[in-house]
Design brief:
Number of domains: 2
Number of helices: 12
Order of helices and strands: EEEHHHEEEEEEHEHEHHEEEHEHEHEEHH
Helix content: 25-40%
CATH architecture of the largest domain: 3-Layer(aba) Sandwich
CATH class of the largest domain: Alpha Beta
């Protein structure tokens, strides 16, 4: 799993690290830099999925630019940005460190400046080694020299590769050591399995085509569910019903999808609500609340997401009443552990922070701007000075509202 994200001169960050746990929460006021962290994950996912470096930032006809595009991916006054991740390897005693540096050429262009992948030992059984690295000898050339570990002391193999794409995305076609290919396959797998979910309830109310992959805005949730096998769909519908029951004021008896249309190629999401007097009413997605639809999207993403993937959700509690925060936290904990999916969430909701409890304190990061430089900073909440003294006087959520952090 991805254990750490290290940003240098990326957007509003000068030099900051985010530690990633099975369930990670990021808090901070508006414009503190939380969304800039999500943009870094978006960039990594795109280049690992085969997008050109330029396209990953500025977008094209099929891809939206990251926020700010070419103009703002590099910290003001700097010429390049660095993103480094640490990837865990279970019980093998070592991690992988992958780093990519992108240089801004002008207002319309950027390119790969350097890239590397290393083995970092956690025990004495293994030794550190650099599997590959690049050297930016001729920055204006479309080719970048890449040096690969050969297993022979002091000897490296040079291969000239295109700087338009990530190096790890080009290695599968090269004649290099199996150790290098295995490492790149592992890192690519984790990056490709980053999924940033931003459910837009208005997009979820319509009929949707049958499809296999949930869209980032969850607009095709009904189509994704309806495309499952009958047995799998019944299992998912039962789980959705169980998790949604504590949320609305009206009791939801069940949640389901149905294929519709002449060729049954579209689908609609439904639920059955109970009313006073032992009456029930069936409602389709057009009549469901924003909070209900967003919650169903989050649960669906966790139920259908790939094992060992990373799910990132901005403003996870948007549309949910504060009294339902505890149910949301319990669902996240249960499904994260059961499905082996790491989750990163941003929130402004004090009720959600209170619902986490003191045991979750080590998994909350506070994002803020430096009062002198204006740079975004990432700090583990548990490492803040006098935190326990502050917590003795008020709840964590109320402290967040007062901005005492």
């Amino acid at each position: 799993m991805i254990k750490e994200l290290h940003l240098v001169n990326w957007k509003s960050f000068d030099d900051a690290k985010l530690f990633i746990d099975p369930l990670t929460f990021m808090i901070g006021v508006n414009a503190s830099g939380k969304s800039n962290i999500l943009d870094a994950f978006t960039f990594l996912h795109r280049i690992a999925s085969g997008k050109q470096i330029q396209t990953a930032i500025s977008g094209d006809s099929e891809t939206k630019p990251i926020r700010g595009g070419i103009d703002w991916f590099v910290k003001y006054g700097k010429h390049s940005s660095s993103i480094e991740i640490t990837v865990g390897t279970d019980n093998r005693g070592f991690d992988y460190k992958y780093s990519v540096v992108v240089r801004k050429i002008d207002e319309k262009r950027c390119e790969l400046s350097s890239e590397s992948l290393s083995v970092v030992s956690r025990t004495s059984t293994y030794r550190d080694k650099q599997l590959f690295h690049t050297e930016n000898e001729t920055p204006d050339s479309p080719i970048i020299p890449t040096y690969f570990y050969t297993g022979k002391r002091g000897k490296q193999r040079r291969i000239d590769l295109s700087r338009a794409y990530s190096i790890i995305g080009q290695i599968d076609k090269l004649n290099v050591l199996k150790e290098i290919k295995d490492a790149t396959t592992t890192v690519l797998g984790f990056l490709q399995n980053i999924f940033i979910l931003d459910p837009i309830s208005g997009h979820m109310r319509n009929y949707s085509k049958l499809s296999e992959i949930l869209a980032p805005d969850a607009s095709n949730i009904a189509g994704v569910l309806a495309a499952l096998s009958d047995e799998r769909l019944k299992e998912i519908e039962t789980a959705l019903t169980r998790f949604i029951k504590p949320l609305p004021e009206k009791d939801i008896k069940r949640v389901w999808v149905e294929k519709v249309g002449r060729f049954f190629s579209d689908a609609m999401l439904y639920c059955e609500e109970s009313l006073p007097g032992n009456r029930n009413i069936e409602v389709d997605a057009r009549g469901m609340s924003d909070g209900t639809l967003r919650f169903l999207a989050i649960v669906t993403a966790l139920l259908l997401g790939k094992e060992n993937s990373l799910l990132i959700i901005e403003e996870i509690d948007n549309g949910l009443h504060p009294s339902r925060a505890k149910s949301l936290v319990e669902m996240l904990k249960e499904l994260s552990a059961k499905r082996k999916i790491d989750i990163i969430c941003t929130t402004h909701n004090p009720a959600l922070i209170n619902a986490l409890g003191n045991t979750m304190l080590p998994f909350i990061s506070y994002i803020k701007r430096d009062e002198v430089t204006g740079d975004s900073k990432i700090q583990l909440l548990e490492e803040l000075d006098n935190l326990h003294k502050l917590m003795a006087s008020d709840t964590l959520g109320n402290l967040m509202v007062k901005n005492v952090f």
